[in-house]
Specification:
- With 105 residues, this protein is an alpha+beta fold.
- It has one domain: OB fold (Dihydrolipoamide Acetyltransferase, E2P) (Beta Barrel), CATH 2.40.50.
- Helices cover 38% and strands 14% of the residues.
- Helix 2 runs parallel beside helix 3.
- The chain is globular.
Length: 105
């Protein structure tokens, strides 16, 4: 990615997730419901117990959602310091993006 150029970070994150899940079954345990009535879950690969949520944050393809938990903050800091994934450039935090998008509706 080149600074100040747009890139499809969501597509890159989807590709990364598909890559680590390919050939694996996934187990998810619901942990709650968010304010939009979506299920929150902790997901792991069934065969090796890899924490998928943590992996996505640690690799920079997701951010720690502080409103619900601080559990992934150390993973986010590692990704940020290493400049991995989203942290290779600049981006707007998802909650800020949603807030701004609602303001223009």
């Amino acid at each position: 990615m080149i600074a100040s150029r747009s890139w499809r970070c969501g597509a890159a994150a989807t590709d990364a997730l598909a890559g680590i899940l390919r050939g694996h079954d996934v187990r998810c345990e619901p942990t709650g419901i968010d304010r939009y009535h979506r299920t929150l879950a902790h997901c792991r690969r069934a065969d090796d117990n890899l924490d998928i949520n943590g992996w996505m944050v640690r690799e920079g393809w997701a951010v720690a959602y502080r409103q619900y938990s601080y559990a992934y903050m150390p993973d986010e800091m590692l990704a940020r310091l290493a400049g991995r994934g989203l942290w290779a450039g600049t981006f707007e935090m998802p909650w800020d993006f949603r807030h701004h998008a609602q303001a223009y509706r």
